[in-house]
């Protein structure tokens, strides 16, 4: 019958229902209880997150499609993150495109206008043609959908690791804006409302939620991938925003299709759906397939009877299907009828309360790898290897395929700084950034959870913004493997602690398990944080000028485990600790410096360490001279100093270095002048050594274009 | 009053509206089925993906009743401006000669480019100095202008892609357009198509260097409201 439930769950269903469900009912339970929809392996642990705050309007309440926070002047932003990892592995173009479509619909289901997208992409080794094919189509798919519906992709990440060879990670986040008092719920609280469905239902994406909740089988799974139609998506977007204040609840049809949407929308009440009233894309679909189809570009609205015509009239203008398919009832039962015959009748209570699991945990043993000491690595070799790593090269090839200027609200654009900045309808500026660090998480998921949260906070500070809200995406292997579940637990602990420390609520998130390669090896733990923050006063648009002083804020520590250098050379070293207080104060110092117009450039130090931060200055066509003795560090080893990725640090350019140093002291942290910018283009001078990196700078800008040219 | 036409799939109508407001030009967004040509002195077809760009970019919109009305306005000498997808609609409907082919790189390209004004007898460029350099973003997958009639292209081109000094080079040509053509107009200079987005270069805050060259073009409509 093709269901994915565990034997213990099957027993539980029979016990609680006191009868054997029919085939259609099994399929409904399979969809609603899927990991993808029910969070059965994660929900208990996720409860530990810091989810409340004075600005939170809507948090991770059950069955709300996205979280919302107040941004003042009567406005709210809605933030949501999603992944489409499994579909993108099979059909990268449609998989990635429907990922964008799905998240857009989550945001509009709150009545909010989507104003920005972020995409965080992880693929395998680019020397393999399969990975280039995946990347090319993932980027094209995101562009195809985002561009067509007029929502700018303002930033993201693109990183590489052979762990993702068979299982790319495609994460998209979306920000929406809505008047605070116009937020629409996704759930109803009274019977009698009519269920209105917009869009046609087809045979694509059958059983997609279940598919996303298991390992890729390697067999033909193309039928579980949905097809993207951004033109229909644009109509759904425009029409939904037109009718948002005429309906009682809005729900996107996503994973699990109608079965999940009606169950979640009813939120404990009952539903009756007449399947024959559902407009179909193909004739004679099996009624069971109609219930679980995940055809995109469909929305469900709960509408008062007297307003149904008004709502559907809006869709008629766009010549888009709109029909009443059923209603909310008071009998606490989810019913599907086909031509009068009841084919599904299940208690809401059963569907909404799947068994929750806490799987066994076991700490991973350190693999005995061959390690070398960092002092054995030659400086120039280290520089060339790290700075040419694909994670650090210019991503213009990717973001130039996105219409990042549509909406005329993108202030800091992709590739310009550590965060993107967008203009909000109330005139305020919002900075957004997504961060992950799978190499560090593979070493220590707890320190990594804290570290990525802090990194996102620093990235926002580098443009002048203070974080106000976060969403998380937790991507792991099979949760039933004790070592995987251990790292999952640790990552949650780290993220949760950091979120409490910074007092930034987590208002939403997503969990994606079963990410493995074809040999059954799980991906490195890849939790990801997307943070948004407001610019209170001034923002910084980076520029570089000759003779500016280079100031390093924060202590550099010789902790290289999980660093890019260690990934390339295999170095025996400690895991960098996340020292959140240093992150917080250093960020405050940078924001102060921006508001006092003391700096012209700011960069958070993370991947590639100090070396890459300095290289970033050089890509503007300048040279830098550094006195390494002036770097405040716990190690004299120049390799460790240049490539450590410990947090709490920024590089800033200033004409008033003393101001920064004094201000740092007054806040209880350190900053030191370590060098100056010169016009010796492409040359990195370390004390008396001059290293010409001009060819690396060309490589930096051309690598992706060249490697992707021939597909 | 200038009409900004919204087809299903149009994405830039409010951006154009905002930029025209910045240029102090009265305008309103009109859904294509509700367009009444007698109420307007000029029309802008904004960017986006009209009707999903199914079949070919701009081709379905080009065959609507709305475009028939707009042709009449063009014949009366009123300004008809097509930006990006609007330009594609103008060539698909025959209001301008030529075609907009897929970019040479065969992918969508979004970037800021330099343009040189080579014709100053059109509604939008009247009053600008000849050879003036403007900075504006492009964002399209099908923007490679081509026409068989070389003389037509040479005589009618309004703006060319250049480097920052105004040199017409192959490197400065983002999509492979004939003669680096970014914009072309009819002989009368009232029907103008352009791939770059002037409305996205109309606000100091969202411009990478604070320039607002798009306003220089849009202000040309001031005489027509």
Automatic annotation (TrEMBL), chain B:
Reactions catalysed according to its record: N(2)-formyl-N(1)-(5-phospho-beta-D-ribosyl)glycinamide + L-glutamine + ATP + H2O = 2-formamido-N(1)-(5-O-phospho-beta-D-ribosyl)acetamidine + L-glutamate + ADP + phosphate + H(+); L-glutamine + H2O = L-glutamate + NH4(+)
Residues forming the catalytic site: 84, 197, 199
Any single Gene Ontology cellular-component annotation: cytoplasm
UniProt EC number: 6.3.5.3, 3.5.1.2
Subcellular location: Cytoplasm
GO molecular function, one term: glutaminase activity
Pathway: Purine metabolism; IMP biosynthesis via de novo pathway; 5-amino-1-(5-phospho-D-ribosyl)imidazole from N(2)-formyl-N(1)-(5-phospho-D-ribosyl)glycinamide: step 1/2
Entry superkingdom: Archaea
Keywords, in A-Z order: ATP-binding, Cytoplasm, Glutamine amidotransferase, Hydrolase, Ligase, Nucleotide-binding, Purine biosynthesis
Signal peptide range in chain numbering: none
Cross-referenced InterPro entries: Class_I_gatase-like, PRibForGlyAmidine_synth_PurQ
PROSITE patterns: GATASE_TYPE_1
Listed GO biological process terms: 'de novo' IMP biosynthetic process
Job description of the protein: Part of the phosphoribosylformylglycinamidine synthase complex involved in the purines biosynthetic pathway. Catalyzes the ATP-dependent conversion of formylglycinamide ribonucleotide (FGAR) and glutamine to yield formylglycinamidine ribonucleotide (FGAM) and glutamate. The FGAM synthase complex is composed of three subunits. PurQ produces an ammonia molecule by converting glutamine to glutamate. PurL transfers the ammonia molecule to FGAR to form FGAM in an ATP-dependent manner.
Subunit organization: Part of the FGAM synthase complex composed of 1 PurL, 1 PurQ and 2 PurS subunits.
Protein name (database record): Phosphoribosylformylglycinamidine synthase subunit PurQ
Source organism per UniProt: Saccharolobus caldissimus
């Amino acid at each position: 019958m093709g269901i994915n439930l565990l034997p213990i769950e099957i027993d539980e269903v029979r016990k609680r229902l006191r009868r054997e469900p029919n085939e259609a009912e099994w399929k409904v339970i399979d969809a609603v209880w899927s990991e993808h929809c029910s969070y059965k392996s994660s929900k208990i642990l996720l409860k530990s997150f810091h989810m409340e705050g004075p600005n939170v309007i809507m948090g991770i309440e059950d069955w709300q499609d996205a979280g919302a926070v107040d941004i003042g002047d009567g406005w709210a932003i809605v933030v949501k993150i999603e992944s489409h990892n499994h579909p993108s592995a099979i059909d990268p173009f449609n998989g990635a495109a429907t990922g964008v479509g799905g998240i857009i619909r989550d945001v509009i289901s709150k009545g909010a206008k989507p104003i920005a997208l972020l995409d965080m992409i992880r693929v395998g080794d680019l020397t393999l043609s399969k990975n280039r094919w995946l990347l090319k189509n993932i980027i094209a798919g995101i562009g195809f959908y985002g561009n067509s519906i007029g929502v700018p992709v303002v930033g993201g990440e693109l990183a590489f690791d052979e762990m993702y060879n068979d299982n790319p990670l495609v994460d998209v986040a979306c920000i929406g804006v809505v008047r605070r008092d116009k937020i629409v719920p996704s759930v109803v609280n009274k019977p009698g409302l009519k269920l209105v469905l917009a869009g046609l239902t087809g045979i694509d994406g059958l059983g997609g939620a279940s598919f996303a909740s298991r390992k890729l089988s390697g067999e033909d799974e193309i039928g579980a991938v949905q097809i993207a139609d951004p033109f229909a998506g644009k109509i759904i977007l425009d029409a939904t925003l037109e009718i948002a204040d005429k309906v009682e609840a809005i729900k996107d049809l996503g994973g699990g299709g109608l079965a999940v949407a009606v169950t979640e929308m009813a939120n404990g009440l009952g539903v009756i759906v007449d399947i024959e009233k559902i407009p179909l894309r193909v004739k004679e679909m099996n009624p069971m397939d109609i219930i679980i189809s995940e055809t995109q570009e469909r929305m469900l609205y709960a509408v008062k009877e007297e307003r149904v015509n008004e709502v559907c009239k809006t869709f008629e203008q766009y010549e888009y299907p709109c029909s009443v398919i059923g209603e909310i009832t008071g009998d606490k039962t989810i019913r599907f009828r086909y031509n009068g015959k009841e084919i599904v009748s299940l208690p809401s209570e059963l569907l909404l309360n799947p068994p929750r699991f806490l799987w066994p945990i076991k700490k991973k043993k350190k693999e005995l790898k061959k390690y070398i000491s960092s002092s054995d690595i030659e400086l120039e070799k280290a520089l060339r290897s790290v700075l040419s790593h694909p994670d650090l090269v210019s991503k213009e090839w990717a973001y130039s395929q996105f219409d990042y200027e549509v909406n005329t609200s993108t202030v800091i654009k992709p590739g310009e700084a550590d965060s993107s900045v967008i203009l909000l309808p109330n005139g305020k500026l919002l900075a957004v950034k997504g961060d992950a660090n799978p190499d560090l998480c593979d070493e220590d998921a707890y320190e990594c959870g804290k570290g990525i949260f802090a990194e996102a906070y620093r990235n926002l500070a580098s443009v002048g913004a203070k974080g106000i809200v976060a969403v998380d995406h937790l991507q792991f292997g099979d949760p039933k493997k004790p070592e995987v579940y251990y790292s999952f637990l640790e990552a949650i602990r780290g993220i949760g602690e950091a979120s409490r420390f910074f007092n930034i609520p987590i208002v939403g998130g997503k969990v994606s398990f079963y990410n493995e390669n074809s040999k059954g090896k799980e991906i490195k733990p890849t939790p990801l944080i997307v943070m948004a923050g407001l610019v209170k006063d001034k923002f910084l648009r980076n520029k570089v000028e000759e003779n500016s002083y280079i100031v390093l804020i924060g202590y550099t520590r010789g902790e290289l485990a999980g660093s890019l250098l260690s990934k390339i050379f295999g170095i025996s070293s400690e895991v960098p600790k996340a020292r959140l207080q240093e992150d917080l104060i250093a960020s405050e110092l940078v924001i102060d410096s921006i508001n006092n117009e003391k700096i012209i450039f700011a960069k958070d130090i993370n991947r590639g360490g100090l070396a890459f931060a300095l290289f970033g200055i050089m890509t503007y066509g300048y040279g830098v001279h550094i006195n390494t003795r002036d770097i405040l560090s716990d190690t004299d080893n120049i390799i460790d100093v240049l490539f450590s990725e410990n947090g709490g640090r920024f590089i800033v350019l200033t004409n008033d270095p003393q101001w920064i140093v004094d201000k740092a002291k007054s806040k209880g942290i350190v900053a030191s002048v370590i060098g100056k910018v010169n016009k010796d283009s492409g040359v990195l001078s370390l004390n008396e050594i001059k290293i010409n990196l001009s060819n690396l700078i060309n490589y930096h800008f051309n690598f992706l274009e060249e490697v992707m040219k021939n597909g | 009053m200038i009409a900004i036409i919204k087809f299903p799939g149009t994405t830039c109508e409010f951006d154009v509206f905002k930029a025209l407001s910045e240029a102090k030009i009265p305008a309103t967004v009109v859904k294509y089925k509700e367009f009444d040509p007698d109420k307007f002195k000029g029309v802008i077809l904004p960017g986006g993906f009209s009707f999903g760009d199914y079949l070919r970019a701009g081709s379905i919109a080009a065959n609507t009743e709305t475009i028939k009305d707009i042709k009449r306005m063009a014949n009366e000498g009123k300004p008809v401006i097509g930006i990006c997808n609007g330009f594609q609609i103008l060539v698909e409907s025959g209001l301008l000669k030529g075609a907009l082919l897929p970019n040479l790189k065969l992918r969508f390209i979004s970037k800021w480019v330099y343009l040189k004004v080579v014709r100053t007898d059109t509604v939008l460029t009247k009053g600008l100095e000849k050879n003036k350099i403007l900075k504006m973003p492009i964002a399209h997958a099908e923007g490679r202008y081509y026409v068989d009639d070389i003389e037509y292209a040479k005589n009618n081109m309004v703006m060319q892609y250049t480097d920052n000094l105004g040199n017409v080079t192959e490197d400065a040509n983002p999509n492979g357009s004939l003669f680096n053509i970014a914009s072309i107009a009819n002989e009368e200079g009232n029907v103008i198509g352009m791939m770059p987005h002037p409305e996205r270069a109309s606000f100091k805050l969202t411009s990478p260097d604070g320039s607002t060259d798009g306003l220089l073009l849009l202000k040309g409509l001031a005489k027509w409201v």
